[in-house]
Write a structure and sequence with these properties.
8 strands; four-stranded antiparallel sheet; flavin adenine dinucleotide binding; four-stranded mixed sheet; Butyryl-CoA Dehydrogenase, subunit A, domain 2; Butyryl-Coa Dehydrogenase, subunit A, domain 1; alpha+beta; 3 domains; single chain; monooxygenase
Amino acid sequence: MSQFDSGWGSAPSTNYEQLAERFRPLFARIRQGAIERELQRQLPFEQIEWLKQSGFTALRVPPEYGGSGVTLPELFNLLTELAEADSNLVQSIRGHLGFVENVLNGENGQRREKWLPLLGRGDIVGPAWSEAGDVKQQEFSTQVRRSGKQWRLDGTKFYTTGSLYSDWIDVGITDEKGETAAVTVSRTADGVSVIDDWNGFGQTLTASGTAVFDNVLLTEDEIYSESKFRYAPGFYQLIHLATLAGIGRAQSNELAGQVAARKRTYSIGNGPRVAQDPQILQVVGRVRGAAYASGAIVLKSAEALQRAFDARFAGDEQQEVQVNAIAELEVSQSLNVVSDLILNATTIIFDALGASATLKPLALDRFWRNARTLSSHNPRIYKDRIVGDFAVNGTLPPAQWRIGVVDKG
C-alpha cells in the first residue's frame, strides 16, 4: 500500500513509491522480529547486513558509484519507514549516513574517489567522535603521534553508535599541531576494540558504547582535516526526528491492532466492544495524528536540508551560509514539536488499553524508552531559545558545536 493510501500523506517525489517498494518487503522482515530482539536484547547484526545487501546504506551515493542517488527528502522518508519497523536500525546507521554526506560535500577529490566506491558497494562507516568524562570542549583526548614514517592512534570514545556493526570507524582526533582532525580506520585493525557496553534504558540495540584505539598503526594519507558539512547539526538531528516519526507510526499501528482485537470492555464504557467506544477511538486518533504531523514536519525540514545541499555547489558563498542557517533554524523549530507529540503519544497509548498493556511480552514500553532516549540527544531545551532569538533579534542559529569542559586557561 502506498504512503498516500495509508493516510500518511503525499510522497516526497513522483518516483518515491517505486523506490520504496524495493525496501518495504525488507522493512516487513525487520518488523517481524523487532519485539523479540528488544525483549531478548539480540543485537541486529543480521538486519544490518540486510540493509547493506539491499543498497539501503548507499541510498545517497551517486549511481555511477553503485548507489541510488536519492534526494534528502526521499532519504528521510525512507528512514521514517525503517524506524517504523525498528527504530534501533536507523539510530545504528546514523553515523554512517553522516559520513556519506560528508564525503558528498567534501572538496577533496582524492578522498571522494577513495570512499564513494566503498560506500557504493555497501561498506558501513561508524562514528567515534564523542568522549566521556572531563575532556576539553575544543579538543579531543584521542590523538595521533608520529612513529617513524607512520602514525599511531590512541584514545577512547563513547557513544560510538553502530560502530560495532560497521566495516570502518571514523575517529575524531587532535593532531600534533593541536588542531581537530579525523582518521578513518578499519574496525578490525590491530588495536581497535569496540565494546558493547551501552546501558541506556532506550535504543538498547544500537551498540552506542565504547571504542578503544590502542597504538593503531596509520599512514599519513589516512588522516584528514576536512571540516564537517555545514548542515551537519540539522542533518544529524533530523535523523532523530525521522526516527521519532517512525516510532509514532509503529505505536499507532500496534495500538489500533490491539484495540480492534480487544474483546473485554468496561461496564462504564461506551459500547459493547472497545473498538466501538468513541473515547477509546479518540485516543487512537490522537496517537495517529501525532505520527502523521511528525512525518509531515520531518519531510518539510528535509526539504530545507536539500536546499542547503544544493547551495553547496552553486558557487555563492553568502547564499550558502544563509540557506544553511535557515535549514538549521527549520530543524530547530521542528525539534520540540515532534519530540512533544511523540513523547505524549507514547504515554496515552496505555489509556486506550488498560493495565494489561503493561505486560512485558507486548514491549509497549519500548516506544517511550526509545523516544525519551532520542529526545535527550543534543539538548532540546536550547532549541526553543535559539528559535526565539531568531524571531525577536534576527540572530541566526550557531553553526557546529561541541560538548566538553570549558578550558578557562
